[in-house]
């Protein structure tokens, strides 16, 4: 015979049901609030406003990007691995936001950032430059820029893919390929190039798989993928950002910079990552003199083009004659003039053919790479390889996964054959110093230019060999939907002026649009 349940049991059951309903309602409200904030294409400023208005949490935002990576990355291959501690970092940011005064936190606090996989993180993530040769290695410390990001409260979302070894293993043109993640795809046209070694950072930002990202450049590896993926990329003055803890190509040209969807986002990242680092002491100490008091955000001026003298080297544009780039730039020149800029046209860059022969640059990099990489590998706490020779041997042993037969490792082999800094390398250095002095520096100073304006990343070698800064901004799309950019390059330390110019152009044109994943 059944008995009636006791009153205490019924009360307990009712309370459990009511609690479950309450939790469901709270979860539904939280989800609705997150959806009310348009997270695709959202800027760091948008996200901080949503945080401040309790419409969004860092955890919700991080989960949004993790879900997009889970859904899109099997096609695009822009991310090598996600950080298993990302949600814990997001929770910490949410707790800090509740107890710290509004406005006291960094612009990147609680914002998920993707790091190119040659930028070291002392955590559960790998730092491999895209190669299985470094899988399982243990770095001694966070890279200098990563330490600054952690202090700013950013959420380290994961590691972006890259052209393996920052595109310095082989000379064949396979941009966006690395052994660990395969071939990266351009979200605007899956058949188009991703360009440059910071391909995964570009792919991921274009496809909204992260809020902001970091790339690295030796010669074009920030500017080129930013151009081909409709992003803003800042290649800073050499030493403005630390290279400590970054898998090197050459300390003479390597730099770390932001790759984002807007100029403002890129500037917010730049403000966090610049400054002195004892592990890159010489370069960062020298460049610290260029950092303006109050940071770079103050140069986000809508009228930033007013009064700026912009140089146009005819040869750079002749290269694009008859293409959509040429037609677009005719319109952009009119926009620049309407916004108050003075265009100094029909300029010539001295020794241009010699600069673009790559001879001096390639000779120097080959010797520098061997020395720099050996030093980096020997400093690792744990590593399967300790020298460039070890890496070459590893690749030969694992030909299938490293695609040695198809892509080769000719740049590695050439670098291994070098014998330190000899007379040939010193002569190459002297030659590049001359090319800088008689070329870009002379052009800028004689014509009193604030910046040189060029299509895409065609100016990257000029900027690379001199340690000069450049900013790419979206400038249009060709007949196949593939983006192209406009680059503003300047003398060392000219980031404030370049930011004014880039922001003024961006606000006057607002060209960027999200990709449609064309096949």
TrEMBL record:
This is Amidase domain-containing protein. The lineage of its organism: Eukaryota, Viridiplantae, Streptophyta, Embryophyta, Tracheophyta. SUPFAM superfamilies: Amidase signature (AS) enzymes. Residues 61-457 form the Amidase domain. The keyword Zinc-finger does not apply. It comes from Eucalyptus grandis. It comes from the Eukaryota. Coiled coil: none annotated. Keywords: Signal.
């Amino acid at each position: 015979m059944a008995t009636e349940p006791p009153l205490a049991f019924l009360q307990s059951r009712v309370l459990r049901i009511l609690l479950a309903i309450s939790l469901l309602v709270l979860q539904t409200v939280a989800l609705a609030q997150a959806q009310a904030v348009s997270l695709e294409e959202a800027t760091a400023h948008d996200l901080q406003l949503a945080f401040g208005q309790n419409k969004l949490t860092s955890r919700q935002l991080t989960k949004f990007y993790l879900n997009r990576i889970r859904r899109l990355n099997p096609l695009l291959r822009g991310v090598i691995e996600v950080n298993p501690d990302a949600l814990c970092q997001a929770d910490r940011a949410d707790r800090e936001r509740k107890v710290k005064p509004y406005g006291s936190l960094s612009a990147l606090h609680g914002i998920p950032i993707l790091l190119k996989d040659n930028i070291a993180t002392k955590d559960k993530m790998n730092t491999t430059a895209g190669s299985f040769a470094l899988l399982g290695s243990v770095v001694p410390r966070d890279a200098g820029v990563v330490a600054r990001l952690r202090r700013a409260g950013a959420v380290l979302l994961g590691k972006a893919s890259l052209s393996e070894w920052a595109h310095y293993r082989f000379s064949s043109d396979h941009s966006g390929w690395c052994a660990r993640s395969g071939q990266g795809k351009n979200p605007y046209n899956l058949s188009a190039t991703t360009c440059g070694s910071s391909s995964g950072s570009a792919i991921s930002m274009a496809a909204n798989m992260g809020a902001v990202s970091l790339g690295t450049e030796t010669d074009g590896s920030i500017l080129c993928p930013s151009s081909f993926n409709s992003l803003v990329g800042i290649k800073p003055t050499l030493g403005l950002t630390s290279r400590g803890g970054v898998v090197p190509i050459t300390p003479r040209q390597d730099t770390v910079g932001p790759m984002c969807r807007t100029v403002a986002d890129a500037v917010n990242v730049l403000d966090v990552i610049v400054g002195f680092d004892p592990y890159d002491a010489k370069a960062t100490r020298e460049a610290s003199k260029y950092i303006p008091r109050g940071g770079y955000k103050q140069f986000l001026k809508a009228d930033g083009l007013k009064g700026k003298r912009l140089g146009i080297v005819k040869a750079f544009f002749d290269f694009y004659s008859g293409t959509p780039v040429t037609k677009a730039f005719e319109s952009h020149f009119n926009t620049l003039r309407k916004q108050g800029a003075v265009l100094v046209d029909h300029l010539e860059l001295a020794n241009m053919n010699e600069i673009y022969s790559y001879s001096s640059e390639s000779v120097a990099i080959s010797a520098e790479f061997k020395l720099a990489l050996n030093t980096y590998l020997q400093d690792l706490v744990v590593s399967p390889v300790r020298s460039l020779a070890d890496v070459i041997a590893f690749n030969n042993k694992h030909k299938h996964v490293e695609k040695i037969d198809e892509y080769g490792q000719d740049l590695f082999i050439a670098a291994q054959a070098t014998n330190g800094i000899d007379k040939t390398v010193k002569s190459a250095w002297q030659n590049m110093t001359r090319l800088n002095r008689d070329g870009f520096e002379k052009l800028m100073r004689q014509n009193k230019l604030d910046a040189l304006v060029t299509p895409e990343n065609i100016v990257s070698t000029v900027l690379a060999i001199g340690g000069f800064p450049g900013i790419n901004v979206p400038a249009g799309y060709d007949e196949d939907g593939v983006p192209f950019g406009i680059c503003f390059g300047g003398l060392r330390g000219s980031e404030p002026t370049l930011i004014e110019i880039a922001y003024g152009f961006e606000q006057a044109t607002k060209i960027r649009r999200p990709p449609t994943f064309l096949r």
